[in-house]
Task: inverse folding
């Protein structure tokens, strides 16, 4: 991963099993994510679903300034430690064994601004498409509410909002365009 590039990071539960069993799991997942990765990445959008998750991230600009730090290696290490930490906690809490996540996480570089807009829509509309919510703002485990200013956030929203022009257009496009697949 490189500075000033956007990435779609995602994974799902092994055999499409649940990653989150209750509200506390979603919150714990986000806390672990912040603990292991906030030094290296900006989060621009996310959605946690019962059996999978999506993050739209970029590498922080100041990571290159750290002397001798291999940003890609440290980011991958952070993700691996994050997944191990979360899986161990869930396995212990629910008396399960084995892999929680399907293989390793996937990351896809986002090349164009059009794709970035569509990915943001896809991430926020995931619960609507999956019939878990009627509207984007009905799902509390995504960044959509943070864009609406409904809660305190560490989310890096400015670049994405700029692509939509205004918050009103951001809301309008989310309400009008439900995307099936990206």
Result:
């Amino acid at each position: 991963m490189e500075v000033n590039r956007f990435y779609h990071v995602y994974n799902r539960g092994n055999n499409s099993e649940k990653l989150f069993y209750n509200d506390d799991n979603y919150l714990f997942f986000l806390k672990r994510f912040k603990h292991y990765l906030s030094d290296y990445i900006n989060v621009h959008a996310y959605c946690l679903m019962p059996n999978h998750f999506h993050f739209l991230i970029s590498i922080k600009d100041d990571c290159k300034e750290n002397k001798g730090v291999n940003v890609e290696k440290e980011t991958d290490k952070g993700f691996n430690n994050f997944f191990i930490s979360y899986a161990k906690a869930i396995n212990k809490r629910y008396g399960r064994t084995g892999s929680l996540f399907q293989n390793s996480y996937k990351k896809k570089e986002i090349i164009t601004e059009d794709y970035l807009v569509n990915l943001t829509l896809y991430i926020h509309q995931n619960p609507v498409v999956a019939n878990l919510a009627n509207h984007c703002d009905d799902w509390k485990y995504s960044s959509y509410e943070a864009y609406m200013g409904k809660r305190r956030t560490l989310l890096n929203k400015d670049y994405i909002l700029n692509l939509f022009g205004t918050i009103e257009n951001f809301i309008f496009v989310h309400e009008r365009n439900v995307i099936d697949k990206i």
Q: What stands out?
A: The longest helix spans residues 71-94. The radius of gyration is 16 Å.
